[in-house]
Amino acid sequence: MLSLSMNGAAVADRFLCVMMAGMFLAAGARAQETGPAATPPSVADAARAARERRESMTPKRTMTDEDIATKPGTADSANTGASEQQVRAELEKRYPPNLTQADLTQQIARMKSIVAKGDADMLAGFKESVLAGYQSVEFPGKQHWEEDASVAVTRLVEEADKGATRLQAIVDDNQNALAGHDLAASASLREMWIAALLPFATAQQRMRDLAADGEARAKAYAKGTAAGAAQYSHEAVSRNELAVGGMLSSMHITEDELRRVQGHYACEEAQWPRDPQHPEIPNAMWTIYMNTASGAGYRLDIQGCDARHYSAVAIPPVSDGSQGRAFCMDESGVVRVAPDGNPSTCISRGSEWLGR
Asked: Do both 297 and 243 map to the same domain?
């Protein structure tokens, strides 16, 4: 994800904590001032209590797209985010009075790396990171969110480019201040640095706001609606299949090496050599393959190992294909899939897996 230099999320968390603490203290004070009721409840009180009980027994309705969509008046809440003053205040906390050349050089390098990646790669990485596991969830307003993210990334890259140039000039022109011998010069350097960095830091905060907004809406839609749940489930199946297919492709390379060294393929963990530097640790590659399969809900079965043959089948949770197809491979190294999820038909009638 983006290399974010200031902890805006922590600022928001602290702000919320202060607000909540104030609410609880105010509520406690009111309770102490009021004290417990000294008289029996009135008829009106009894009627209100009965009404509240009836309302609490009313079944909650299922969430709809309208519930997940951003409500009028708040559609651009992520556009504002933290103010420039808040960002500046956070920079003031982050940068010490006596800046070192190493601190400043590191910041410039981070900004240059963003510029080197460019808009397209930055945007793709941002969406992949924020919506990890929810890329297929079409929450209401997703297209608008993606457009906002595209604009924000473009601005971030532009500010990184301009900012790196400004900051490098500050470093070049203030070597005496960086030596730390003149406190007044060091303080002036710090003020110049923060002012030059502010546009980039503000663009970073905008990205944080968009990330929090997109992630929350995608998860709410996936958990709160039938359509979102179906989209999330479909994506999970695709992700698991990709992991299993890639795992089998990698395992064939290991099996070929084992055959070259031992003279035969290996079907059992004991036949896989351990790391000579750490003999007490179970074979790392075997563990990776088995954990990858089980993590995707599959069971990996390796059979028929001899000097010329072996077969490996990744068996999905159910055989109807609804939770993933069966994957298989033999000494040919070709990964195959059985659409019906049946491992027994995979080797003989499965089609070649082409990465999807």
From this structure: yes
Query: Inter-axis angle of helices 183-224 and 142-173, to 10 degrees?
Result: 170
Q: Which helix (H) or strand (E) holds 328?
A: strand 326-330
Taking only the tens place, the pLDDT of each residue in 175-188 is 888 887 778 888 88
CB–CB of 97/131 below 8 Å? no
Give domain status of residue 50, yes or no: no
Strands 336-338, 326-330: pairing kind = antiparallel
pTM, 2 dp: 0.53
For 187-305, list the strands marked E by DSSP.
Answer: 299-303
Residues 159 and 267 in one domain: no
Exposure of 1 in the CB half-sphere (CA atoms within 13 A): 12
* Whether residues 172 and 277 fall in one domain: no
92 lies in the same domain as 206: yes
The angle at the Cα of 12, spanning 7 to 18, to the nearest 5 degrees, equals 130
Instruction: Confirm whether 25 is domain-assigned.
Output: no
Residue among 159, 191, 153 at smallest CA distance from 174: 191
What is the tally of structural domains in the chain? 2
Report the length, in residues, of the chain. 356
Q: pLDDT by residue for the chain (356 residues), tens digit each? A: 333 333 333 333 333 333 333 332 233 333 333 333 333 444 344 444 544 544 444 444 444 444 444 443 333 434 445 688 899 999 988 888 778 888 888 999 999 999 999 999 999 999 988 987 788 889 999 999 999 999 999 999 999 999 999 999 998 888 888 887 778 888 888 899 999 999 999 999 999 999 999 999 999 998 999 998 888 877 888 888 888 999 998 888 889 888 888 899 999 888 887 666 666 666 778 888 999 999 888 999 999 999 999 999 999 988 777 788 899 999 999 999 988 777 788 888 899 998 77
Domain identity same for 273 and 294: yes
Closest CA to 314 of 280, 279, 290, 281: 290
For residue 282, give its domain range: 233-352
- Are residues 190 and 135 part of one domain? yes
Residues 269 and 155 in one domain: no
Q: State whether residue 315 is helix, strand or coil.
A: strand
